[in-house]
# Entry
Amino acid sequence: MEKKITTLLNIGDNIEIEVDKGNSFLNMKSNVVKVISDRMIAVSTPIHNGKIYPISIGSNINIVFSKDSKGIFYFIGEVMERKKEDNIRFLIVKKNSDIRHFQRRDFYRLNILLNIDIHVIENGEYVKTIPSISKDVSGGGIRIITKEKLEKHTTVKCSMILDGELIEPIGEIIRCNPVPESILKYDIGISFTAIDESTRSKIISFVFKNQRKIIKKGLI
# Structure
């Protein structure tokens, strides 16, 4: 059954407008101004670097949004009009593709190197911070390498910067394996155990955006 805009989006919902820049995607925040029909939607004109970002009539853009625990949705849209009413600038976008749905289990673990601070928690208190480097990240957990061993079932807070924003999910060590002949001696898997849906959606969106870049380059 075809997914419909009218059943998935409401006025005020946060979305991302994704513009293909050739070698990369430009993602900008927007929101739903009006749901016109199953194939037509009005969205606020995105702001980039403090200025209104000009999107020409006839341009194809991707509309990306998340729905709580259901995962990420996106569709290809065409800008039909640029309008201004009551000092609000917005775009009229026509849906030109099916709405595609990525559930959490559909997301692969994104191989990416990030600086991660691991804050060890014991009896509800932070006892030390261990610097680490990520090997991969997903909406459900993260894999890191570090100099220090961490015991299985240890509770940690993972501090990382994704798209310029600090993200700090709580997780549990599920494995810690030695890495022979390496400065970073331990390969550690962490499963997120205390994470709100907003934070998880931000991680999934980060993975999704970078996955799209890799697909565009033909690497997967």
Remarks:
- The chain has a mean pLDDT of 86.
- The chain has two domains: 5-102, 110-215.
- The longest strand covers residues 72-85.
